[in-house]
Amino acid sequence: MKQSADRQILIRDVCKEYDGEIALDHFELYVRKGEFLTLLGPSGCGKTTTLRILGGFEFPSSGRVWMEGQDITGMPPHKRKINTIFQKYALFPHMNVFDNIAFGLKVQKKTRKEIDSKVGEMLELVGLTGYGKRNIEQLSGGQQQRVAIARALANEPRVLLLDEPLGALDLKLRKEMHIELKRMQQRLGITFVYVTHDQEEALTMSDTIVVMRKGKIQQIGTPLDIYNEPKNVFVAEFIGESNILPGVMHEDCLVSFSGRRFPCVDRGFARDEPVDVVIRPEDIQLVAPEEGMISGEVLNVVFMGVHYEMQIQSGPFVFLVQSTMKEEKGRSVGMKVPPDGIHIMRKDALS
After folding, report:
1. DSSP assignment, residue 73?
2. Sheet strands side by side (includes 7-18)
3. Superfamily classification of domain 241-346
4. Per residue in 36-72, pLDDT tens?
5. DSSP 8-state secondary structure symbol assigned to residue 247
6. pLDDT (tens digit, 9 = 90+) per residue, 92-142?
7. How many CB atoms lie within 10 A of CB 252?
8. What is the dihedral of CA 142, 162, 45, 33, to 10 degrees?
9. Which of 80, 125, 306, 336 could form a disulfide with 285 if both were Cys (CB 3.0 to 4.6 A apart)?
10. What is the pLDDT of residues 245-269, one digit of tens each?
11. Where are the domains of the chain?
């Protein structure tokens, strides 16, 4: 099958069922060469099933998978130029770091010189130079994760699949590894397909995010697109925190909600079309009551370290507001939202 030159992987009309339960529902996706693509969604949405089908550990009930123009749908894992890193790293406890990384190279019957060179290169890449003789149990969780990455990359896969590989690490280490993984991927230039339910991981590392729900894709886009222009209520609620209100789109760039009209930047809606309005908490500016587009009363204030998170009652709706400026509980405040902070979604957008 012909593929566009930059489309390394093509998943076409794939369905997967387990005992009559649908895990993937006519799923279609392409992955570009050298891309860091993240499958993001809650448990049971089909993201790990997609990864296992790509790796050859599962086969679709119907549909096809192509890689670089070759149909790999029924190909076993060891024949694919694809490696997988799971949440449990599956390192060999009876082998030291060097032998873990060298395992696949020895299976390929590489020479000792080739193995020494490649393992040294991988240890340097993952920041573990000098650790070759260490036993696996002597390593921290983060170091073990680096060894798993080095072992997978030593075989020079064209695609690396990562199934929630940071899930066992503490928060600080996870954030450090976000930067490290992205750095490695950019340096090597190979394709990463990453699975997570963690929105911050997806937003931090990805070139492209695929948001999934019940075996279907809800939205595909850059982190900025997914965050700022969610296509439906599910995406808006799953990616970060949102204020979602009912509204009416009267004409291009004019919407009403909370009892008044507001300028926005969205177009292409029918006249007086009912819509959902999304406003991110950080896009609301607190001002004096008489200066606000909306006014309300502060119900609750929580210090979050970098900002304050406040609940503000305005009519029947409680707005979530994030600000570096604290307002006291019980105080009347005004709220302003710039036109590009008001995002409009169609009512029938959720599939």
Report:
1. T
2. 21-32, 7-18, 62-67, 70-71
3. Nucleic acid-binding proteins (2.40.50.140)
4. 999 999 999 999 999 999 999 999 999 999 999 999 9
5. E
6. 889 999 999 999 899 889 999 999 999 999 999 888 999 999 999 888 888
7. 13
8. 140
9. 336
10. 999 999 999 999 999 999 999 999 9
11. 7-233, 241-346
Identify the three-state secondary structure at position 139: coil
pTM: 0.87
Judged by DSSP in three states, 193 sits in: strand
Hey, is 77 helix, strand or coil? helix
* Sheet of 254-257, strands arranged across: 260-263, 254-257, 243-251, 273-279, 343-346
pLDDT for position 187: 87
First to last CA, the chain: 30
d(CA 220, CA 206) in angstroms, rounded, equals 12
List the structure tokens of 262: 């507001």
CA–CA separation, 153 vs 83, rounded Å? Answer: 8
Question: 3-state class of 223 per DSSP?
Answer: helix
Six-digit token pair at 330?
A: 């019980």
- For the domain with range 7-233, which CATH number is right: 1.10.10.10, 3.40.50.300, 3.30.559.10, 3.20.20.70? 3.40.50.300
Alpha-carbon dihedral 93, 94, 95, 97, rounded to 10 degrees: 40
* Identity of residue 168: A
